[in-house]
Amino acid sequence: MNAQSTPVQVRDQIRSGQWGKNTSGLASGYVQGNIVILPKAWADDFLKFATLNPKACPIVGMSENPGDFLLPSVGENVDIRSDVSSYKIFRDGQFKQEVSDISDVWQDDLVTFVLGCSFSFEEPLIADGLEVRNITENVNVPMYRTNIECQSAGPFSGTTVVSMRPMVPKDAIRAIQICSRFPSVHGAPLHFGQPEMIGIKDINTPDFGDAVTIKEGEVPVFWACGVTPQVALEQAKPPFCITHSPGCMLVTDIRNSALSIL
Prior knowledge:
This protein is an alpha+beta fold. It has two domains: 7-117 and 236-259, PSTPO5379-like; 119-224, PSTPO5379-like fold (2-Layer Sandwich). The protein has helices at residues 7-15, 40-52, 119-127, 133-136, 169-179, 228-236; strands at 30-39, 59-62, 87-91, 94-99, 110-116, 143-149, 159-167, 191-192, 219-224, 241-244, 250-255. The radius of gyration is 17 Å and the shape is globular. The model has no long low-confidence stretch (mean pLDDT 91).
């Protein structure tokens, strides 16, 4: 599969088990979503948490009713139980296993949230002539835990996870201008340069994803990341929840251009 694949083609390949890798660069032009699935008893507080932290947790879709596993609001025949290439299952806030299908653990009280993903703004960056290093090097984007506190809601709290793309300063400024048009997929960067200022000790050792080359004269540019909810889930310790594995997104039928505010 590649950038020319349609969202339906991507989901079909994932559902059939033929694609189990990260989805960066696939189905160019379409929104990819981070996934959080929680019991209804926990969903209202998570919705409030996402609303209070829109840069890290921008909601682009959710299930209409508890137990719904089809998500028509984000795509044709989307089945959230099988259309993500890799899921992480947590119990009492502890990661338990990574699986490619969650049909056998599905519950009638589960609520699904689809959160905007940074892959959506990579496309306009590339279209403007900016290099996106993780795509150039064909790896998962590097992601880091930071000391940037999220606003709390009920049991949900924690610090922001960021994704990073290295750029020369003039390209970083251009990236800020471009990404400001896309608040539903994390918007403008939170920080660039001096990673230690946001609590990152070693830029070459990401907490999630893969390290990328940072060339001489480049600065690391950091965006709020949809892995942030996983940190909040670790803190809240719900009895059961499911997320995507970092970099393994739900590819939706929503066009990136539909989320641009300009």
